[in-house]
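Suppose you are handed only these lines of text.
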Amino acid sequence: MISIEGLSKTFGGLHACDDLSLSIEPGSTTAIVGPNGAGKSTLVQLISGVMRADAGTIRLGATDVTRLAPAHRFSLGMVRSFQTARVFPGMSVLDSVRVGAYYGLFYASHPFSVGSTVRDAAASLLRLPAWRARYREAERHALDIIGLFGERLATRLDHYTYTLSYANRRRVEIARALASRPRLLMLDEPTAGMNPTETEELAALLRDIKAARPELTLIFIEHKMNVVRQMSQRVVVMDAGRIIADGTPEQALNDPKVIEAYLGG
Ligand code: ADP
Ligand code: MG
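From them, the structure of the protein bound to magnesium ion can be written out as follows.
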């Protein structure tokens, strides 16, 4: 699914990502762990295209995406959430998730090109029925996805996202990502700021989603080891921009190098 070779990113003299190579199987769930400042978020920024790598290549299947813009990677099914939830503050819950659903549908039938969505909007004035059908399907799909989160979002469909609790903004962000029907979903600390009950709920939800869509490839950064253990087949441990351990949760988390990195960090 995703293969990374020799990926590097420096900030000043700091190697946030240091000649890193990693290959991830389609349909797998991989946790990325490591002390603060290890380079985990940087890795997700590089894979999603929010940051450009200084060196190295990133491939999605056979496609070299290293130089593609984030929107182009999104159109190929590479979707992510941020460590600090980023939602559209002046949009309702339903609209926010519908945006994800709409563009997921849009790109399923249109190859990416710069400005394509703007051109589509203009052309749609002439093809109003097609546009309306996609809009309605996006709404149905958005409501289905919102429904997975139970009452927490479903009772707040018309609430502006800036009025939501932190945990709910995070749910909206994850719902928006899921609604676009990603092939590769990257979540940067999805349970950050959630209490143990909310964390357990989100972990169960992500497990259900994976069970329903076995072809989905999931990469998530997580500090809570109980979540890591229950969700992932594979744990990749980073420290100082490098991978210091990689294996099953048991292998990776009990590696002496990993214990040392945590104690030293
Ligand atoms: P993690 O997510 O593992 O905590 P990050 O990827 O956020 O780590 O950061 C790795 C290192 O790169 C840290 O030392 C951090 O301070 C630095 N860093 C991250 N983003 C930037 C940036 N935009 N500018 C400068 N330094 C950065
Ligand atoms: Mg981070």
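What can we learn from it? The pocket of adenosine-5'-diphosphate (ligand 1) is lined by residues 11, 14, 16, 34, 36-42 (CB under 6 Å). The two ends are 32 Å apart (CA to CA).
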